[in-house]
Amino acid sequence: MIMDYLLIIAGILxxxxxxxxxxxxxxxxxxxxxxxxxxxxxxxxxxxxxxxxIKPCLESLALxxxxxxxxxxxxxxxxxxxxxxxxxxxxxxNKQYFKLVNADPGKDNLKGKTNALSQGIEASSGEIIxxxxxxxxxxxxxxxxxxxxxxxxxxIVGGFTLLKAKNTFEGLQSLDWLFVFGVACAxxxxxxxxxxVGNNLAVRRSAYNKVGGYRQIPFSVTEDYALTRSILKExxxxxxxxxxxxxxVISSPCFTFVDLYRQKIRWGxxxxxxxxxxxxxxxxxxxxxxxxIAGLIFQPGFILLLTVLLKIxxxxxxxxYLLIKTNKYRYIRYFIAFEIYFFLYVIILPSLAYLTKTVKxxxxxx
Length: 366
Prior knowledge:
Layout: H1 2-28, E1 41-47, H2 54-62, E2 71-77, H3 84-92, E3 98-102, H4 112-122, E4 128-133, H5 142-147, E5 154-158, E6 161-163, H6 168-189, E7 201-204, H7 205-210, H8 213-216, H9 223-234, E8 238-240, E9 249-251, H10 257-271, H11 276-298, H12 302-325, H13 335-355, E10 360-361, E11 364-365
Helix pairs in contact: 1-6, 1-11, 1-12, 2-3, 6-12, 6-13, 10-13
């Protein structure tokens, strides 16, 4: 009986939390805009051994619908060991608004990608700094749409990123990202900004400078989270996270299980620094999943069946809503694989992250 009561309570909390998420995403589509705002912008892209993906990224950046005299695109070659630099040089030839920076080795707080981004920002001058990754493709409207959300009190604007998917392994990752971005969007809109994600993120330069930039921010394996938290904590600026198809970035999934494992470990280790509200929000999901496993082992029955069905229904509704709004509903065919994968890693990842001493990313230990 005790297990049944715990399952019922956890199920109610889970349903209530996701009702709030739906409300937050709905509100995020009605955020206040600064119409006509057209600041100078700097787009920062760090690239390390990206010979297979950098050209499509550069091509999408070259097609951006924004005044050429107000945009600069800084590509940082992060000590690549392939032909990434050659591809960049060849592409940006005769394109005055592109700039190549070859990153020097960093030290202290400046390690890995953080070091490359810091050097790229220091070589730029735009009023608004936009970040994306070298394996991403941005829409033509990306800059214009993103800067429109910089009202007077906003210092950070987040945006959605969706992964391309051609098979089940890639599809479950795509739904995973969409799920996480949906939670980040909803909570931010409801006043609990958890994080921005560095493949679709924009900040005011004045806010970046006020916190001392990456040279002063304590090192984190999730540099986007560290930057977001520092600005929110140390400045008077707010963060908004609009759910807009016009700023939707497309990225590539991990192609091997090893790469996916390393990505999740990096996210998990970075998440250990999450604010208390974040632990509560994700703790509800963790506790509910853990109770479902306990119920299956110790007290299978009608209540357990109802709570399992409740979880599947809520997850399916949440993912479906996001897919419809991003015009990617065909990815719903990956839902069953995603649900199994998501259920397992929500339980396993916190322990792995806590026990992990080093993180490996892009062939470097951080």
